[in-house]
Amino acid sequence: xxxxxxxEQSVRIADNLEAIQQRVAKAALRAGREAKGVSLxxxxxxxxxxxxxxxxxxxxxxxxxxxxxxxxxKWPPLKADFPDASIHLIGPLQTNKVRDAVALFDVIETVDRxxxxxxxxxxxxxxxxxxxxxxxxxxxxxxxxxxxxxxxxDNFIAECRNNYGxxxxxxxxxxxxxxxxxxxFAFLREIANRNGVAGLSMGMxxxxxxxxxxxxxxxxxxxAVFGERPIVS
Length: 233
Ligand SMILES: *Cc1c(COP(=O)(O)O)cnc(C)c1O
Known about the structure:
Blueprint: H1 5-30, E1 39-43, H2 49-56, E2 62-65, H3 68-81, E3 86-89, H4 98-104, E4 107-111, H5 114-127, E5 133-136, H6 150-162, E6 168-172, H7 181-194, E7 199-201, H8 208-213, E8 218-221, H9 223-226
Parallel strand pairs: 1-2, 1-8, 2-3, 3-4, 4-5, 5-6, 6-7
The structure holds pyridoxal-5'-phosphate.
Pyridoxal-5'-phosphate is lined by residues 43, 45, 66, 90-91, 174, 204-206, 220-224.
């Protein structure tokens, strides 16, 4: 008897998720933390709705997408079938997409400038959807990368809370490609600690164990869950 392709994919993803959980558990143990304090965001960007459905069928419920438009095409039917799925926006957000983003996503991880914070706050009020927000910090101070500069982070966090009333539930970073990620993870944790921010979204497929050892509460894994992303031409 041959197994349908989507079922095969579901089994493969379930195996990947199981292997990740074991690695998270070991890293948490090394750091003296509880593995259940680490939430896995399965990054489904570029993967088809069928692949995401296969992942949803394993029971996994937390996903990450980096483009509003792509998520708006892919997710509404999936959300209709899996209403408890939660989607995190992990890519840059333009103010003209804030309305769609607030309507679709459950967590916005990439708040990084006052104009955007203001637009998100206004839209959340309009839609009565008060989503948890993460602030993206550009820990490597890379000019091409999104995120608040570290020196401005304390002020910006205070501004998001006090001026815009945002629920700042975490900080997020994407370390530079060619640097030791541990330094960036420790730096992000330090900024979070001194500002009383509980969540830390850090660690991807290549470095999530290090992130867990350094206190990540949210790890964002694409390739480790789904395999290599399809090539888009
Ligand atoms: C794509 C992406 C990830 C996942 O990367 P992998 O290397 O596939 O785990 C995590 N975070 C962000 C912001 C991404 O854009």
